[in-house]
């Protein structure tokens, strides 16, 4: 819990230093927009961000007012509005990436190169759901997957 607070505090500091006028939620929306090949619908953004569509509308309103995104009509369906990054939005996104990189460097500064490598392997294992940091493999037949698991039938 202390690490989580430290990470958030450092990231917030690096974002505030750049004075982008972007909230963490808006930052997440900008990063999400950057992953689309073409401007997405607001419903697509809501699904990707796992929020209700109304929340996306509020975020887009703020980003549009600051010139970072714009609403554009869908070329095939006039009832659909798509959201695209503006040049200012792309510039802000680059600054956001730089701020996040600076924050990561500050967070990882106390670790040696070997410790960073070990941490990377451990985090990869957690994200991928692997054990022991190696490739995911099934235990031999009849062997418990974990010490608390019953033996597998042959």
From TrEMBL:
Residues 1-128 form the HTH marR-type domain. SUPFAM superfamilies: Winged helix' DNA-binding domain. InterPro entries: HTH_MarR-typ (IPR000835), MarR/SlyA-like (IPR039422), WH-like_DNA-bd_sf (IPR036388), WH_DNA-bd_sf (IPR036390). PROSITE patterns: HTH_MARR_2. Pfam families: MarR (PF01047). Residues 138-154 have a biased composition (Pro residues). PANTHER family: REGULATORY PROTEIN MARR (PTHR33164:SF103), TRANSCRIPTIONAL REGULATOR, MARR FAMILY (PTHR33164). This is MarR family transcriptional regulator. The lineage of its organism: Bacteria, Bacillati, Actinomycetota, Actinomycetes, Kitasatosporales.
């Amino acid at each position: 819990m202390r690490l989580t607070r430290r990470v958030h505090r450092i990231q917030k500091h690096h974002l505030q230093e750049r004075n982008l006028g972007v909230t963490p939620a808006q930052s997440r929306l900008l990063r999400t927009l950057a992953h689309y090949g073409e401007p997405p619908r607001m419903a697509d953004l809501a699904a990707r961000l796992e929020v209700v569509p109304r929340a996306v509308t509020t975020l887009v309103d703020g980003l549009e007012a600051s010139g970072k995104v714009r609403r554009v009509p869908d070329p095939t369906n006039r009832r659909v509005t798509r959201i695209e990054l503006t040049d200012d939005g792309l510039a802000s996104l680059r600054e956001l990436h730089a701020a996040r990189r600076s924050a990561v460097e500050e967070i990882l500064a106390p670790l040696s190169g070997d410790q960073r490598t070990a941490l990377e392997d451990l985090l990869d294992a957690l994200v991928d759901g692997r054990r022991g940091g190696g490739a995911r493999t099934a235990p031999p037949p009849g062997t418990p997957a974990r010490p608390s698991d019953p033996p597998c039938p042959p």
